Amino acid sequence: MKVALITGITGQDGSYLAELLLEKGYMVHGIKRRSSLFNTDRIDHLYQDPHDPNQRLKLHYGDLTDSMNLTRIIQESQPDEIYNLGAMSHVKVSFDSPEYVGNVDGLGTLRILEAVRILGLEKKTRIYQASTSELFGGLAENKNENGFYDENSPLYPRSPYGVAKIYGFWITKNYREAYDMFACNGLLFNHESPRRGETFVTRKITRAVSKIALGLQDKIFLGNLEAKRDWGHAKDYVRMMWMILQADKAEDWVIATGVTTTVRDFVRMAFGEVGIELEFKGEGVEEKAYVTACNNKEFQVEIGKEVLSVDPSYFRPTEVDLLLGDPSKAKNKLGWVPEYDLAGLVKDMMEGDVALMKKDVDLLKAGHQILKQLE
């Protein structure tokens, strides 16, 4: 039985990857940070009874800032594959916590690589390092001849998050070359799902749209509506992570869809999933969105209602306006083909959040009934 170790297993990618590996018969070890709150919602359906001898998922408390702890977990689990998905991955927040993001996202990668080397596992253990499209920085002159970013594009990160990740990227390449380790970088472009963190823009949009449609919220505030991203589904991307570590040769790979969309159009698509049409008026910080039609009887919002405004506080000090990846290498060499397009992704996210927000409506109704009975 193959053994895998996943850092960041309680996150979006970690939970989907754990599902995939368990389906493939792996023993899966996961590292989660200690917290006074339960933070395992995304994997609770996988982790039933730790005393069950047939349980193939084991969780460890750990942190990417603690080298001794990481070394102990790797020594105990003896993994065939390590997927380093743990990170402080919110770009905007990285400007507020640059030292922390450098310690976790940059040096955290080094700590894993060095632990594998010190333990003498460099011939046994294959390592996947979750790199990021933020390394490219959105500079037009760094694209390839077809207007995409690929594995040969120059890197120019424009946030503390990107700078920390570029250290992780290069130290992974360095250990691969210096110690002949099977260590790979996956340059992941934006990938979303119903499990995406609530502070990331796509999930913020789908949650807010669901609330607005159900009368639980009036409007949503966003930053740069002109920003363009290459959005894929996390399920497709974790499948590619696994494929990378099954390859014959350790290499670096771009994981992307090759399609770009503005934040504005993502908003429009999300509202469209509940039958609401929008009109955008104004420019820059004055841009707003208004309801022009409601085509679903279940979701009725007042025509002409303002449902979106721009908040400059969400702008980044250095903005990356466009990210578009070229997945040709992954498709041609590994046969990776995404199962979700953008429309399918938005539909999946909206269905999940509408169902979630309907539970809130039901709770409110139940609360009102209890109050009436007490009167």
Descriptive report:
The protein is built from 10 helices and 15 strands. It has helices at residues 12-23, 67-77, 91-94, 98-118, 160-179, 201-213, 234-246, 263-272, 328-334, 342-374, and strands spanning 3-7, 27-32, 57-61, 81-84, 126-132, 183-188, 191-192, 220-222, 228-229, 232-233, 253-255, 261-262, 276-281, 288-294, 306-310. The radius of gyration is 22 Å and the shape is globular. The model has no long low-confidence stretch (mean pLDDT 91). Strands 3-2-1-4-5-6-11 form a 7-stranded parallel sheet, with helices on both faces. It has a 4-stranded mixed sheet with strand order 8-15-14-13. With 375 residues, it is of the alpha/beta class. Helix 4 (98-118) runs parallel beside helix 5 (160-179). The termini are far apart. Strand 5, helix 5 and strand 6 form a beta-alpha-beta unit. Helix content is 38%, strand content 17%.
Helices and strands, in order, run as EHEEHEHHEHEEHEEEHEEHEEEHH
Count of DSSP helices? 10
Distance between the termini: 62 Å
Helix content class:
25-40%
* Beta strand %: 15-25%
